[in-house]
Amino acid sequence: MNKKTIITALLALVAILLVSIVTKGQKKNVKSVEVKPKVAMEQKIMQEDDVLTYDISSVSDSASRIIIVIREYNQDGMIGEMKGQGLKMAKTLSIGFSPRQSVQSDSMVTVYVRSEHRNGLARDLVLKPVPDAPETIYLYEKVPFRVSAIRPNTFIPLALYGSFWWDSKYKICRFCGEKELTEENIRESDYFKHSPHYYIIGVIFHDNVARVVPL
């Protein structure tokens, strides 16, 4: 074998090694890219939104039980109601939503109402896309109620969970209004004037006269 043949063979071997290295590197990159979406999805599912917590300690001695109620509304009025079984009295109640409200592709959300005893109610709520929006989008937000007085055996609203609405003038989805709802501002609130679909989560306290104060 002459010198020229040896050099040609060595160059061919180097070329094969380079192709092998590049191919292995490409396989690693593809594998890495395929894993990332799975990790991101797991993180999104595990996240929960902020929880609304209410102090009901002043009711605990006088009320016999708590019934959780979820009412569904559109612009025509109430269209549905869900009630849970009577719960053991507690000092606090928490209301939360999962998955996060910022997950715009989901048309379902789970609302849970729990006491410090960890008992409570969990229900799946159907969400509606924002009407007239240029694309199918689900945008909901929560607003707490401040309750100034409680009447026995009467539905007491604790949280509004409402849909955004489409502002055709400015071409945006809006959810504008008070940071907290009260008996005084509820009738004038833009949430109820403009939100096309919403839920009100509340409770019924049996045999009590007390106050509920958001923490």
Describe the structure.
The chain is an alpha+beta fold. 23% of the residues lie in helices and 34% in strands. It is built from 2 helices and 12 strands. A 5-stranded antiparallel beta sheet has the order 6-5-4-1-12, with no helix packed on it. 21% of the residues are buried.
Question: Could you give the count of β-strands?
Answer: 12
Mean pLDDT: 75
Distance between the termini: 89 Å
Indicate the low-confidence ranges by residue numbers. 13-48
Topology pattern, helix = H, strand = E: HEEEEEEEEEEHEE
| Order of neighbouring strands in the sheet with most strands | 6-5-4-1-12
Instruction: Report strand %.
Output: 25-35%
Tell me the radius of gyration: 28 Å
Biggest beta-sheet profile: 5 strands, antiparallel
Individual helix count: 2
Helix content: 10-25%
Keywords, please?
215 residues, alpha+beta, five-stranded antiparallel beta sheet, 2 helices, 23% helix, globular
